[in-house]
Inverse folding.
């Protein structure tokens, strides 16, 4: 079994993939032993490689500015898709929402008077997340000038629609973000990069870690600590203000 796992590593499988296969082997050999089909648990001493944790990609602020400027050029009254695309990406970055959460939004999930969006997260947990004026303006333009041009019998109460009038899909949003970022210095990245960037930029600006935890919908603070990271500028500021001999 060790030889097999080693061969997989030589073929280029990631540590996380090998760890999953190792766990499957141990589970199977443990079951064989529990059923008295083997005299010993032959996989009990098999160890999994420690999966390395890498931080998701953070989009630089200059790249975000460039992306939004490009989207605004296309977001005209006679281009419903352009208005929708700008509203989607503005709300993704403003709220730090998961792409599935955004795709599932209905018209009634936006509180326009308080700049809040109701997101349905993992485990059917609902949370209210604030968003800024640029996102509000983009959504308002989409609802006034863009959505009426795409809505159909399929539309129901979906906030964002595709070209056929149905609810916009996760894959479509992923492609939208990837294409929008591909023209920037940061390069191609998916919607998760906007979620991580939102959290990182909030922390850089001095936001409380627990507030970011609530924003992202994480069950534990530990998840947020892994998900976000402190920029070198924030680290320097903390050092200069806290260290006695800085």
């Amino acid at each position: 079994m060790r030889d097999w796992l080693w061969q997989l590593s030589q073929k280029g499988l990631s540590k996380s993939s090998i760890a999953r296969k190792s766990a499957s082997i141990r589970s199977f050999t443990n079951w064989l032993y529990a059923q008295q089909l083997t005299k010993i648990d032959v996989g009990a001493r098999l160890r999994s490689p420690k999966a390395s944790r890498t931080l998701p990609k953070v989009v630089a602020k200059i790249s975000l500015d460039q992306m939004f400027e490009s989207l605004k050029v296309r977001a005209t009254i006679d281009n419903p898709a352009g208005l929708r695309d700008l509203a989607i990406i503005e709300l993704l970055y403003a709220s730090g929402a998961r792409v599935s959460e955004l795709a599932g939004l209905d018209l009634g999930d936006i509180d326009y008077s308080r700049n809040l969006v109701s997101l349905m997260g993992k485990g059917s947990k609902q949370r209210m997340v604030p968003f800024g004026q640029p996102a509000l303006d983009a959504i308002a333009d989409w609802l006034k000038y863009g959505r009426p041009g795409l809505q159909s019998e399929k539309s129901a109460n979906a906030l964002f629609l595709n070209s056929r009038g149905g609810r916009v899909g996760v894959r479509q949003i992923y492609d939208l973000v990837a294409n929008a970022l591909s023209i920037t210095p940061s390069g191609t990245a998916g919607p998760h990069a906007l979620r991580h960037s939102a959290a990182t930029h909030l922390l850089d600006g001095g936001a409380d870690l627990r507030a970011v935890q609530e924003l992202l919908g994480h069950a534990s603070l530990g998840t947020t600590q892994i998900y976000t990271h402190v920029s070198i500028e924030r680290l320097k500021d903390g050092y200069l203000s806290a260290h006695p001999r800085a």
